[in-house]
Structures are given as C-alpha cells and as structure tokens.
Amino acid sequence: MMKMRRFLSLLSVMMLMLLVCMTAVSCSNNFKKVPQTGFVTHHVKNGDSHIPFDAYWNAPDEKAWNERVKGEHGKENLLAVASVDTGHMDVRPDTPEGQEALRDLAEYFRKSVNSQLEKTAEKTPHFRMVPLGTRGAYTLELAITSITPTNAKAGIFVTALSGIKGGGLAKRFIKKGHIAMAGRVRDDRGRVVSEFADYEEDHSSLLGVDTKDFRKYAHHHHTIDEWAREIADVYSTAYGHRTNKHMMTLNPF
What we know:
The chain contains 5 helices and 6 strands, in the order αβαβαββαββα. Helix content is 35%, strand content 17%. Residues 1-26 form the signal peptide.
C-alpha cells in the first residue's frame, strides 16, 4: 500500500509538471522572432493571452465591426480571402525546388484558411465568405514572411544517437525549421483595420524524425492548419476576437 501511495504521489507530481510545461508552451510569445518585412505596418506585441498571435493590432472600429458580427440593422460580416503573398520575406528560397515548394505552401495556406472560414460560416450567423471584390466585404490578406525546413538528415542522426550515452546532447545543436506569417484585414474602403503576425517552430515528432522530414516545408502544414483555425475564430467573432491556441501535438504524421 505504501509503495502504491508513493507511486501515485510521484505520478501526480509528474502530471503537474507536464501541465505547467504545456501551459508555458501555449502562452509563449515569439514577438522578438517575428520578422519585420513591411507587410504589416503596426508591429505591436500582443499582450493578451487569449489572442493566439505574437503580434496583434486593431483599429478603433469596434462599433462598425460588432454591428456586422451581430447582424444589427440587417448587416452581415462578409469576408473575402486574397492569395497568400510570398514577396515580403526576410530570406527567399534560392533554388527552383525551394521556390516551387514555397508556392505550393502558399497555396496550401490559402486553401486551409478558406476551408476553416467556410466551416465557420456554416455554423455562424451573419458571417459569410464571398469572392474578392464583393461590395461591402472585408478582405483578408496573408503573407509568409520567413521559412526554413527541418534538417531531415540531422533528425535521423539524432535518432540514431538517442540510444548512445550522451547522444541526447546532439538534439541541442539541431536547428528546427520555422515559419512566420503576417496578416491584415481591410474594410470595403481599402483601409487596414486589423493586423497580426506569428512565428512558430515546426511540429516535428518527439522521436527525432518523422515522415514529414522528407518533404520540404511539410512540417509547417500543422502550423498553417492551426493558424487557419485561429484566423477563423478571431475574424468571425465580436471585436476583441478571443480564441485559444492549441498547446501541443504528439502526432508525427
């Protein structure tokens, strides 16, 4: 009985530590790592833990926005999505392979955001997706501003060393891939009313290597899908736009 109590006490402590670590991950802000490439002009650190982006700014348009969201006076919150910009990057891929992979990722980003917004529109009153140029609609403009892939060979090397004494130290010297994005929302007069930006490292497997390592930038699909969910949450709701960032994933696929 005593051994069982000790085991349960140890298990409780371990679970508490894990929750603390996960909370720290979920609340971390990478504002200092967000590149300033000119796509957004209000580079403001987000201090609200309920907003999922590292940088976040709103124009004082609370009344106009909320009237649309709530359907007041017969209004609707109409939103169109532009193609994802790749011209505002700190460093662009310098090989044909990298440039093609970036174009593919930008299209994946656009489709992921569109998909999440369409799902949101199906269950959200007064919110509707519309084509670009629709009269009275807001326009969402997105950009990939920085990107690096994960080193697949390094991941394999770390995995091979994991069973060797001291081999785990190699993980500290392996730089994970990252991706940064920025976004802005324009009203029907072309005026920017909201801007945001975020920086994330990839979501590679905790085992050191996974199937995404062998497709350039594929690790970033998870981050993009999470951004798409957050963007849909933020810009289909009342002013203040609160949502929650998912803490972490263990799925290597």
